[in-house]
């Protein structure tokens, strides 16, 4: 008899041992049976690659530990819960571990995106997709190219030309830049937005003419209202002017100002329940000291003025909501009108480049599987899963969940199966990616809850559990967060959201007692200082006062945006602190990289003297040219390229454009780097820049101009990958820090919980006929929606609820990353503002607990002294700092990254396999003899090899490329293919270490690290036969044994 199916939902608050619970449940399934293949029936889905890797590692490490007889808490719990003896559990763990390692591809712990891609690949034929399409993760790049393609149709397609010209005119009339590119790029994002997909589908059958007609309807609606309002305003002013009444005669000049607002269409501040309306209702038109003549004139015409005010009030009552609505729609209507044309451009780009967007996969599956039985899905993916683990359920999108339901439902229906959902709605911070906190809130509710929606798409009852102990943070932090977030629930207007924080933030403390929390309210920023500088000053103060038992690598500054992070990183770097942040190590911030880009721009377009001047400014400093910079620029910027090269030669710069132009992009830019001596010191920026050049050459189609365009588009995301072992302060956005923990967290933030930039909403008219039969229309969001109709007001109310939760969740994620110490930096709320900021919420918590003291800026909880100390990590924080920030030290360029070489080259790991693998990887980067140092340096800078190993490799590889028998194989005159795959007529695939092609003659080089074997000669002969079958003549077959001394064998 089969076991019954089960459905468990776990509410896992921050630090509650979620991964431990997932791994234990996974192991319980695979070890509770003698069937060693049980793991093949399990599909575990996580949100990120890192989470998937961590879960895999935890499963394998626990299996290894148990198989070795090491029984930790998890193993002991497994024995207890499965009633299996230690010996039996040990035997099963050993067998299962061996089976997983031998069938690793069936070890299905993966991300939701990877699983979706797998389904798409299997459905490719059914979906009409190319069977060899590539996945494009950079949706922004595709959309940008589609916008460029659309703009290129100006002057060729009259309809598109007219629409874009109209849009440019509209933006100009709104005192905005007439350039429509930015707005089109924003609207293009809808094509990749899961929340907007269904809305966009309703527009597919709409033509540019339909949009034009709607535009005319709305424009007329706006003009009519403004004209009627202006007419009434002019009528009122005429009465005042004709009768010689002074504007100052009216109370506060309110009524004349009101009339002027009507004339100028300045409606936003008009209030029919404000001071003016109250004064008119009480017949209070003028001041007591108003001149008698003015009083008499006003009294004589007060009825007329009252009638005008009443007419305006009636006009606004009947038509203002529609007026505001029309204004909000029309700002988005023109770019929306070209959305279908943009979609065509996207499709054209995807076909031309044989790609599909990762963001479209969920919709493709959703559309295809609507009417397909679950068994069809199993048949297509070739596997049948019985047990499902879904992590971070709060971040799983609606489409993703709907696509999983038929697979899971079918398995649960058959019995001996399970579903294990884990999530925390308080950590749902990816709504912009389609994640819906409410989806998990509904799934995690039980029948006893009062909530209106209790979701369960399956036929079996669910069991909802809570992981209620915080194993991450020390007790003071747990206690503070419990009290703070329970108190903060009042700021959430949705009842389910309020309950989430009021009843879901009461975590139990663990055995780690102590810890420290500090709240700092900043003084008002001095005029000469920016807000970010004021925050940075407080961060510097905190760092200076840290217990010296901490080191800086244990500190993480959590920020809301990249921009804030870069600014704080800059200020800390100036103060002498070393920083680790992907955003503060951006490649384009390097002067060396900036020089390369400027000089490349000049080479592409000789008339670009601005880029040349910037490049020369760098060279003036880099080579210490003994000429005044102004004189140098005045002289060299006038020269032709040939003259410039001769002038540069006089400064010891040997650069020939003719040689540069003969090389492929990577080789050409590497030559430029050498010619201008940019690698005479260790420059991690240049190394990573060259890596991006190589990736572009391998993945993109195009020349130097296209590379420059590519880099400009991607520069905000291209950064140095720094070792995580460095003792440098980390700066991360809250989104990037999710799932991580740090001994010390500094949280500088004062977000408004209703903060919402560039908000848009989809409006569904009650009567589509009033909107040219459009059933769904995009409009500008924000508080202005409150002044529209019932539908618009409901949209704004829903938006506010979503924003409240978004920003409270960001606060929750930020404050729960800390293990030992938490420092909060915020601002006290203004006495006059009604905004709800983080500062206001912190102040309210202190007041509720009777801790608030007027004028006090710092509040402390716990003891700031470290409870334990690792002597090996002790530093003197008060000593003079000599750390060099790798994000701002532009002068020396002697950039060093702390490596993790020990990870790769400890005595236990420095075996032949590691040695051979790394040598092969480095050789794959070497095409000419000049590439040896660059390739080895690259591996050293990224921490894969130590300095000592790098020197050994350089000696070995220099001997290789300069060996008399091989030197010609590493010259600049060859066409070289490293790690080249060839396919024979029999569909056999071979991967050649190095293939050199010259005039249809092939030289094959195969690298080996062990002793010579007969099988090596058989293998290279197979390669030769494969090349011969492709009509190449084999000039040489060379086996190179990478040892001291080199052993080079020419095979007959």
Kindly list the characteristics that best describe this protein.
seven-stranded mixed β-sheet; single chain; 1052 residues; six-stranded parallel β-sheet; Rossmann fold; alpha/beta
Detailed description of the structure:
With 1052 residues, the protein is α/β, with parallel strands linked by helices. A seven-stranded mixed sheet has the order 11-12-10-13-16-9-17, with helices on both faces. Helices cover 48% and strands 12% of the residues. β19 (989-998) and β20 form a beta hairpin. α16 crosses α17. The model is unreliable at 870-912 (pLDDT under 50). The protein is built from 38 helices and 22 strands. The radius of gyration is 34 Å and the shape is globular.
Concise synopsis of the structure shown:
The protein is α/β, with parallel strands linked by helices.
Count of the domains: 6
What is the overall pLDDT average?
Answer: 86
Instruction: Please give the CATH architecture of the largest domain.
Output: 3-Layer(aba) Sandwich
Kindly report the name of the CATH homologous superfamily of the largest domain: P-loop containing nucleotide triphosphate hydrolases
The number of helical segments is 38
Helix proportion: 40-55%
Largest sheet features = 7 strands, mixed
Distance between the termini: 66 Å
**CATH topology descriptor of the largest domain:** Rossmann fold
User: Helix- and strand-based class?
Assistant: alpha/beta
Rough shape?
Answer: globular
What CATH first level of the largest domain would be assigned?
Alpha Beta
- The number of distinct β-strands equals 22
Task: Give me the side-by-side strand order of the main sheet.
Answer: 11-12-10-13-16-9-17
What low-confidence regions span 5 or more consecutive residues with pLDDT below 50?
870-912
Strand content: 5-15%
What does the radius of gyration come to? 34 Å
């Amino acid at each position: 008899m089969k076991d019954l199916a089960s459905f468990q939902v776990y509410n896992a608050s921050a630090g509650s041992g979620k991964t431990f619970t997932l791994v234990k449940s996974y192991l319980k399934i695979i070890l509770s049976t003698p069937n060693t293949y049980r793991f093949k029936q399990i599909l575990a889905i996580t949100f990120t690659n890192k989470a998937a890797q961590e879960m895999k590692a935890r499963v394998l490490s626990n299996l290894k530990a148990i198989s070795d007889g090491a029984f930790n808490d998890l193993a002991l719990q497994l024995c207890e819960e499965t009633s299996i003896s230690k010996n039996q559990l040990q035997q099963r763990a050993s067998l299962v571990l061996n089976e997983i390692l031998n069938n690793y591809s069936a070890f299905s712990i993966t991300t939701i995106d990877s699983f979706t891609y797998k389904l798409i690949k299997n459905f490719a034929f059914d979906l009409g997709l190319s069977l060899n399409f590539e996945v494009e993760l950079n949706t922004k790049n595709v959309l940008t190219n589609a916008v460029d393609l659309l703009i290129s149709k100006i002057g060729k397609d009259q309809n598109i030309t007219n629409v874009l010209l109209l849009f440019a005119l509209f933006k100009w009339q709104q005192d905005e830049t007439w350039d429509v590119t930015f707005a089109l790029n924003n609207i293009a994002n809808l094509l990749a937005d899961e929340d907007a997909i269904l809305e966009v589908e309703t527009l597919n059958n709409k033509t540019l003419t339909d949009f034009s007609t709607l535009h005319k309807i709305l424009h007329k609606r706006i003009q009519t209202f403004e004209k009627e309002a202006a007419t009434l305003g002019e009528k009122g002013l005429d009465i005042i002017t004709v009768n010689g009444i002074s504007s100052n005669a009216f109370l506060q000049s309110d009524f004349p100002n009101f009339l002027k607002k009507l004339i100028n269409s300045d409606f936003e501040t008009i209030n029919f329940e404000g001071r003016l309306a109250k004064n008119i209702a009480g017949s209070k038109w003028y001041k007591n000291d108003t001149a008698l003549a003015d009083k008499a004139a006003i009294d004589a015409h007060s009825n007329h003025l009252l009638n005008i005010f009443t007419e305006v009030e009636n006009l606004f009552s009947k038509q203002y909501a529609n007026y505001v609505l029309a204004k909000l729609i029309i700002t988005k209507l023109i770019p929306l009108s070209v959305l279908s044309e943009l979609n065509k451009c996207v499709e054209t780009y995807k076909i031309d480049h044989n790609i599909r967007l990762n963001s479209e996969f969920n919709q493709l599956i959703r559309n295809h599987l609507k009417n397909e039985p679950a068994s069809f899905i199993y048949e297509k993916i070739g596997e049948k899963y019985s047990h499902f683990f879904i992590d971070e359920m709060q971040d799983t999108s609606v489409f993703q969940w709907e696509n999983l339901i038929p697979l899971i439902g079918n398995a649960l229906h058959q019995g001996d199966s399970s579903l294990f959902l884990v999530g925390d709605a308080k950590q749902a911070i990816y709504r912009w990616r389609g994640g819906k906190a409410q989806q998990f809130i509904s799934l995690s509710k039980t029948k006893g809850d009062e909530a209106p929606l209790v979701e369960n798409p399956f036929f079996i009852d669910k069991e909802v559990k809570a992981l209620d102990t915080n194993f991450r943070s020390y007790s003071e932090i747990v206690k503070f967060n419990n009290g703070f977030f329970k108190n903060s629930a009042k700021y959430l207007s949705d009842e389910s959201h309020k309950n989430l924080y009021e009843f879901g933030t009461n975590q139990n403390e663990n055995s780690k007692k102590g810890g420290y929390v500090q709240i700092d309210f900043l003084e008002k920023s001095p005029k000469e200082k920016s807000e970010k500088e004021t925050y940075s000053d407080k961060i510097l103060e905190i760092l200076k006062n840290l217990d010296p038992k901490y080191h800086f690598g244990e500190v993480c500054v959590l920020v809301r945006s990249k921009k804030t992070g870069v600014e704080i990183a800059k200020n800390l770097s100036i103060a002498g602190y070393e920083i680790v942040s992907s955003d503060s190590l951006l490649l384009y911030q390097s002067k060396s990289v900036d020089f390369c880009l400027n000089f490349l721009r000049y080479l592409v377009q000789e008339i670009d003297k601005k880029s040349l001047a910037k490049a020369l400014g760098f060279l003036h400093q880099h080579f210490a040219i003994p000429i005044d910079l102004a004189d140098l620029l005045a002289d060299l910027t006038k020269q032709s390229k040939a003259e410039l090269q001769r002038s540069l030669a006089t400064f010891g710069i040997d650069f020939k454009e003719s040689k540069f132009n003969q090389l492929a992009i990577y080789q050409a830019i590497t030559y430029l780097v050498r010619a201008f001596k940019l690698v005479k010191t260790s420059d991690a920026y240049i190394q990573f820049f060259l890596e991006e050049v190589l990736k572009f050459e391998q993945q993109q189609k195009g020349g130097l101009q296209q590379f420059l365009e590519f880099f400009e588009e991607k520069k905000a995301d291209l950064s140095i990958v720094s070792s995580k072992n460095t003792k440098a302060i980390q700066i991360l956005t809250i989104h990037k820090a999710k799932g991580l923990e740090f001994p010390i967290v500094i949280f500088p933030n004062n977000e408004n919980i209703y903060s919402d930039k560039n908000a848009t909403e989809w409006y569904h008219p009650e009567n589509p006929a009033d909107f040219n039969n459009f059933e769904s229309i995009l409009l500008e969001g924000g508080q202005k929606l409150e002044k529209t109709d019932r539908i618009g007001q409901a949209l704004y109310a829903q938006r506010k609820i979503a924003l409240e939760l978004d920003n409270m969740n960001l606060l929750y994620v930020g404050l729960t990353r800390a293990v030992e110490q938490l420092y909060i930096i915020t601002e006290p709320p203004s006495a006059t503002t009604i905004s709800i900021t983080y500062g206001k919420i912190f102040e309210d918590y202190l007041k509720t607990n009777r801790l608030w003291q007027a004028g006090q800026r710092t509040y402390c909880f716990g003891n700031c002294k470290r409870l334990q100390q690792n002597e090996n990590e002790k530093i003197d924080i008060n000593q003079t700092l000599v750390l060099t920030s790798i994000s701002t030290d532009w002068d020396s360029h002697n950039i060093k990254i702390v490596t993790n070489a020990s990870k790769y080259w400890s005595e236990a790991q420095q075996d032949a396999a590691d040695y051979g693998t790394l040598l092969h990887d480095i050789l794959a980067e070497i095409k000419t003899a000049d590439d040896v140092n660059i390739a080895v340096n690259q591996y050293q800078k990224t921490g894969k090899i130590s300095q000592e190993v790098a020197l050994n490799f350089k000696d070995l590889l220099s001997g290789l490329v300069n060996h008399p028998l091989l030197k010609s194989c590493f010259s600049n005159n060859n066409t070289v293919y490293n790690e080249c795959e060839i396919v024979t007529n029999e569909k056999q695939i071979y991967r050649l270490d190095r293939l050199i092609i010259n005039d249809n003659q092939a030289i094959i080089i195969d690298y080996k690290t062990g002793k010579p074997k007969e099988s090596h000669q058989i293998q290279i002969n197979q390669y030769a036969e494969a090349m011969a079958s492709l009509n190449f003549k084999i000039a040489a077959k060379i086996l190179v044994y990478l040892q001291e001394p080199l052993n080079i064998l020419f095979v007959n």
